[in-house]
Amino acid sequence: MMRRPLPLTFEDRTAQLTNTDFDELYDRLFFHVMRSPGSNITRIYDMVIRASRYRSTLPLNRDPIIELEFLPNESLGTISFLKGPYQGSIHMGRYLRKTAFFGTSLSRKFMASDGREYKWGYRTNPGQEWTCTTMDNTLVAHYDLKNPNHRFYDVSGNNLIVYEPWAHIVSEIIASCIIMRHIAQFNL
């Protein structure tokens, strides 16, 4: 019997773009996404513990790893990588470029810190709300919303699955997924 690593399975606690937690099912990684009231900057934090009622009452005493600054009208602004192999800022429209000149805004590609290009597509695979692939269509990650016809107990039912070979760019996958969902929500 051949054993393969389990994909990183993140529960998206609220499925909101500005206030949620991505907690890995097997307690390997935890991310917190937060936008302060009245702010247009969404911050992504690498956390050391799973989201809980207790953690939410504590002040955040760490620095974000990525900031997504949207313009006041919610149009695309800049993405800033504050930690990791690539540090710097770039306009979101340049970071997540359309895959075709006259193509839909819901199909975009980005260059990750590993030097490879990846693309996001909206509802390109059955059962997947968002699908991230390599440029040669190898599945990297997918974001799935809960099925409204199924009951979920103690979990949200919203998941981001990142396959193990791409675990090294998981924060970039989360950030680009949030931007893609933002583009869809605000018809950008």
TrEMBL record:
Source species of the chain: Cyclocybe aegerita
Domain of life: Eukaryota
InterPro entries linked: DUF6593
A Pfam entry, by short name: DUF6593
Domain annotation DUF6593: ranges: 17-182
Protein name as catalogued: DUF6593 domain-containing protein
